[in-house]
Structures are given as C-alpha cells and as structure tokens.
Design brief:
The structure is a single chain. By secondary structure, the protein is of the alpha/beta class. The protein has two domains: about 230 residues, Aldolase class I (TIM Barrel), CATH 3.20.20.70; about 70 residues, Type Iii Antifreeze Protein Isoform Hplc 12 (Alpha-Beta Complex). It is about 30% helix and about 15% strand. An eight-stranded parallel beta sheet has the order 5-4-3-10-9-8-7-6. A two-stranded antiparallel ribbon has the order 1-2. Helix 1 links the parallel strand 3 and strand 4. Helix 1 runs parallel beside helix 4 and helix 9 runs parallel beside helix 10. The radius of gyration is 29 Å and the shape is elongated. The mean pLDDT is about 95.
C-alpha cells in the first residue's frame, strides 16, 4: 500500500487521487482528433492519459461465425470482434506523438498492452507504467511480461473473482513488480451505479495489501467521489471531446467540462477525508465565540440571587458554559453586575 511516484507525481493516500483520462477509440481514427483529446484532457486537469495498444489481429481472428460476433443487448451488437477492434484501435505509429504531447503538457502518457508484442513496443517508448485491462486480468503470461519491466502496474478487476485477483497480484509481484494498483471495475458499458459495489474498495485494499482505485464506466461524478471517500487513490474515466461525435466508447465517456468537474470534486473529497479528529480545529477556533454561554441579562445588585429572570444562555460564548446554569441559580452576586456581563466564577 506504499505510495510511489510516477514521474514527478505521487500516487497514494497522501496525495489527491490520480485522475486518468482513457482515450480508447474516441479519436475516431483521426490523429489530429487524438491530439485534440490530449490537449482537452490536460486543460480539464487530467493527470494522465491512457491508450490501448493492440491491433485487430493481436486481439482476435477475422471470422464472422457466432463465437466472433457480439450478441446481446450491447451498443456493439452484431459487429464482429475483428470489425470492432479495427475501428477502435489506436495506430501504433500514433503512440509516440501522443505521448510526446502528453509530456509537453505535464501529463503522464501510458497504455494498456494486450499482448507481448505491445509490451515490447511500449518499452521502446519508455512508458512509465502499464495498465492491464479487465478482460486481460486472467492472462497471467501477459501480466508476467509486464511485471518483468519493473514498472508500476494498474490492474482492472472487472469480472475477476477474489482468487483470480490474487493470482494476478501474486504473479505480478513474483515477477518483480513492486507497485500494483487494483481498480474496482464493473465490466458493463455504461455501468449502473447500483451495479458498482464500491464498498469492495476498502475490503480489496485490506485483502491484497495494495492501493485500490476505480475504473468507472458510470455517467457523472458521484460514483468516483464516493470511491475516493472509500480510499480510492486512482480514478480512470473514458474521455471524449463530444459524445455527439460518436465513437466506440462515446456513450460512457466524459466531455471536457464534465471531466474538470471530476478532477475538482474528487480532490475536494480527498481533502475532506483528513484524519479522525474531535474538538475545534485551528480553523474553527475563532468560531467558538458564537457558542451559547451564560450572561447576565438584567442588572443584578450585590447579594441578589441569580435567577431565570436575570441569567440566560445566549450568544456569544465568552461566559461560563450553559451546563453550569442549574448550579448558578440561587447563588448570590458578589458585587453589582451590569446587564450584558458574561458570567464567571468570581462574580458569585
């Protein structure tokens, strides 16, 4: 669960959550749009931008029989896997200009490799970390290959049982990866908040003794903010210039103004966590004067009894606390006391 640095940015509970903008296929097969996405993500406050490194041929076979066609009530229904990946993939020759632009804008640029050739390619580009996608979290040979780079690894846990997560973490660590971050993830696109179960985050953190974040396919910022409150140190969201422009992931991607809200609100949530504390903080000290306290509300002569008519608990808070009210009633004033005087023990 130790913090670590990615370039000059600390990742861990002592720092605001790392916010990753996932480009995926939202470039719509245009390099200029991809670079616009990088610039918009940086402007929105993203700390990192993630690509996916594969080709249709490294993902699947170019077949259209039943096994290779998407079925069910999904936005990609009736497309073959090959067709989808051809449309969604980021050409490998685009990676260098995209990562260079990220560096120029102060963002961390990295990717999810989907096979060993992608890892070799990304190593040549000197990426600072790697992401294992949910559907690849049982691909232990791929996890071994990534772990052997010695770089931090972020693993999405969509679909994975506790045993499968354990295998992935043990494999990564045994092959030399010192910094593993697990992302709670629901592998539906988009995901429903009711199906997200972020209560798993603190349990996962305790069970696997590593940092945990959220790969969020819900709309809006509420789930991510709640995840930070539960200890998430990384938030990943799909990012697009505009959902109206379409794209393979557009329906569950955030637009720039929404992403800025995500960055701001998750930082607020992190700041609000603080530590367990009771009593006034330094910033609250000046507010103590607005508490109620015991005041003389009518002139009292020397020797006169304190009573409900001449003593009340009112604001401000410069007198004795109201808890002494019953003790004071019936005691005698030691001197003349003018109305508006805060009560103190030397007045009786």
């Amino acid at each position: 669960m130790n913090s670590f640095h990615l370039h000059n940015r600390k990742v861990g509970a002592e720092a605001p959550p790392l916010i990753i903008a996932e480009m995926s296929g939202n470039h719509n097969q245009s390099l200029s749009r991809a670079l616009e996405i990088v610039e918009a993500a940086a402007k929105a406050g993203a700390h990192a931008l993630k690509l996916q490194t594969y080709t249709a041929d490294t993902m699947t076979l170019n077949l259209s029989n039943k096994d290779f066609v998407i079925s069910g009530d999904r936005q990609w229904k009736d497309q073959s896997l090959y067709q989808l990946y051809q449309k969604a993939y980021t050409p490998w020759e685009w990676h260098a200009p995209i990562f260079n632009r990220c560096r120029e804008l102060g963002m961390i640029g990295f990717s999810s490799p989907f096979d060993e050739t992608a890892v070799d390619f990304l190593e040549k580009l000197n990426v600072p970390c790697y992401k294992i996608a949910s559907f690849e979290n049982t691909d232990l040979p791929l996890i071994k290959k990534v772990a052997q780079t010695g770089k931090p690894m972020i693993i999405s846990t969509g679909l994975a049982t506790a045993a499968e997560i354990d295998e992935a973490v043990r494999t990564a660590e045994s092959e030399g990866c010192k910094d593993v971050i697990l992302l709670k993830c629901t592998s539906t696109y988009p995901a429903s908040p009711a199906n997200t179960n972020i209560s798993t985050i603190p349990h996962m953190k305790e069970l696997f003794q590593c940092q945990v974040g959220l790969s969020d396919h819900t709309t809006g910022t509420g789930v991510a903010v709640a995840a930070v409150a539960l200890g998430a140190t990384v938030i990943e969201k799909h990012f697009t210039l505009s959902r109206r422009d379409g794209g393979v992931d557009a329906t569950f991607s955030m637009e720039p103004h929404e992403f800025k809200g995500l960055v701001d609100e998750t930082k607020r949530a992190w700041l609000a966590l603080g530590s367990i504390t009771y009593g006034p903080t330094k910033s609250e000290a000046s507010s103590q004067k607005y508490r109620r306290s015991l005041y003389v509300v009518k002139d009292i002569n020397k020797g006169e009894l304190f009573s409900k008519e001449n003593v009340k608990a009112i604001r401000p808070g410069f007198g004795l606390p109201p808890k002494y009210y019953d003790i004071l009633l019936g005691k005698r004033a030691s001197k003349f006391i003018k109305a508006g005087t805060p009560l103190s023990w030397d007045l009786m």
